[in-house]
Amino acid sequence: MNKIMSNPLLIRNKLPFFSKIKAEHIxxxxxxxxxxxKKIIKKLSLLKNPSWDNFVxxxxxxxxxxxxxxxxxxxxxxxxxxxxxxxAYNANAIKISQYYSExxxxxxxxxxxxxxxxxxxxxxxxxTRKKIIEDELLNFKLGGVQLAAEKxxxxxxxxxxxxxxxxxxxxxxxxxxxxxxxxILDKCQLKGLPSEIIKVARQTASQQKKDGWVFTLDFPSYxxxxxxxxxxxxxxxxxxxxxxxxxxxxxxxxxxxNVINKTLKLRQSQAIILxxxxxxxxxxxxxxxxxxxxxxxxxxxxxxxxMPYAKKDMQELQKFAANFEISKIEAWDVAYLSEKLKxxxxxxxxxxxxxxxxxxKVLSGLFxxxxxxxxxxxxxTKTDVWHRDVEFYEIRNKKHQLVGQxxxxxxxxxxxxxxxxxxxxxxxxxxxxxxxxxxxxxxCNFSSPTKNKQxxxxxxxxxxxxxxxxxxxxxxxxxxxxxxxxxxxxxxxDAVELPSQFMENFCWNWxxxxxxxxxxxTKKTLPKSFFNKLVESKNFQSGIQTLRQIEFALFDIxxxxxxxxxxxxxxxxxxxxxxxxxxxxxxxxxxxPNSFSHIFAGGYAAGYYSYKWAELLSADAFxxxxxxxxxxxxxxxxxxxxxxxRGGSRPALESFMAFRGRKPNIDALLRHxxxxx
Length: 677
Ligand SMILES: [Zn+2]
Fold this sequence. Notes:
This protein is α+β, with helices and mostly antiparallel strands. The chain has helices spanning 23-45, 52-79, 83-104, 107-118, 127-142, 149-178, 195-207, 219-228, 232-243, 257-273, 279-283, 292-321, 334-346, 350-354, 359-374, 459-476, 498-504, 510-516, 528-538, 542-559, 570-581, 597-600, 610-627, 633-644, 652-660, 667-672; strands at residues 181-184, 213-216, 377-381, 391-396, 402-411, 421-426, 439-446.
């Protein structure tokens, strides 16, 4: 066998050979596929009579081959990274992004798609394939391929300028965060802080060769400080540093004000060149929400519903504040007082609760839910993996046919990226002789078992697992065989969290919890009284939390639809939004937009509303189960058929309506969030 053929990344007929993949395999494998693909694409772009079979299908196959290899590489880089792997990953990531960028600029490919669409035979294609072709054409349009030469140059310049601005924004936030150290020398000032937090602050100080304790603006340091530090004066000081990050009020050279103004201006020009009225209109082309008007009215409606509850939350907090001699609650008091109030009201710790969720019970509880809803069996089996902690499972239907498979990598460890996510290992498609079985990566970062004790999960971790499993089901239960829209591919991203957030609901159900708990020592299930407290705590300060999310979302969508940075200041816009929806009014010097990375560096521009939007969808979908029976097989089958199995083969709204029998409705979201009487 020659070297290329023995490269484990290129062996395709089985599951990946993770234990055999080495850093040195990456560059040859990626290089080989890109080269092969380019040859094919060149031929395809010259086709005189393009059709689905001779053009779209081979093009999909090119994408599938590259994605399959790259998913293995990027997965390994995320979960068992080392220097060699990272180097190879980074070098090839650039090549791949260049490859896709060239593809999206290829006007010959675009004109072949246009030819197919205008050909008589287009009518004979099924809805799914028509949608794939429309999606492709929209992508070319958004990539500026059809623009006249001069506009095209301008458009490209704007795009590359925006990429630079976005990384500049992120760098400024990072540098500004890192440039601030909160060095405490007097032990009295640590009053109220948990000992673990103090220990970490001590360690940070010695790493920095400083005396005393050092706190930073990173989340794990900043948040507990604001929750627990008794000194109000220090909380204010620390809050000031946090709220003025990357602004003219902190280190000047990291100020993001100009970056924001330039970004807004360029985004607007980009939209205008493509023929849209504003950036939001352009961004919403690929979303489920149809217009900024629709989003704004959704957010305002939710705000009106949340306001009375937020006021009540605030009154309760204000009353409670008297115990701490705080007469007027300021922004730096909210987390502190809320944490204290929570302890008084619910009187249980996450740690206590954690003793009830051993790994084996949680998994069997989850698999039981799946069995009841969809009549599917999940069994552990063996395969080649990248780490001894990784487990592999098969999903089979009633007839014992293999439906999907997944890797489960539950525990945090060195060289593994933080967070939890689902990723595609193999997608369902019919591009080869047999239709492939989809395979998913499910990755979490829970605390690992010890020698004598299996792993126990917090309730939050259980929710995370159910959430990611929901994404996994969307990927694995797809019935769509056309690659570009199978599983989660081609799903509008304001709808992609529907199946995942849907699954979270089961973690608040008494039957599911009963089935899933077993105390570490007593071996008893969670007492009903404890469960009730847990449910009560779920919507603690839900009014305040909801309004906060609305403040961000409303600011984002208004900023990208009709706001003109030349005529107005983004801080004035934020003040106006706060006049409307803020219940905890931050001080005038708060510079939140200057570190709002989601919309200036993270792809959520004109998209922050998606969080609440998807929550509405998932709550409304779950509501149908609640009306009848949350384990209803009939509704389960319908959810699977109309939503999980459809992928991006049709608009998310159509799938939702096919399942629910009507348009989405806000009531279930309000009820789930405790915002309805
Ligand atoms: Zn998610």
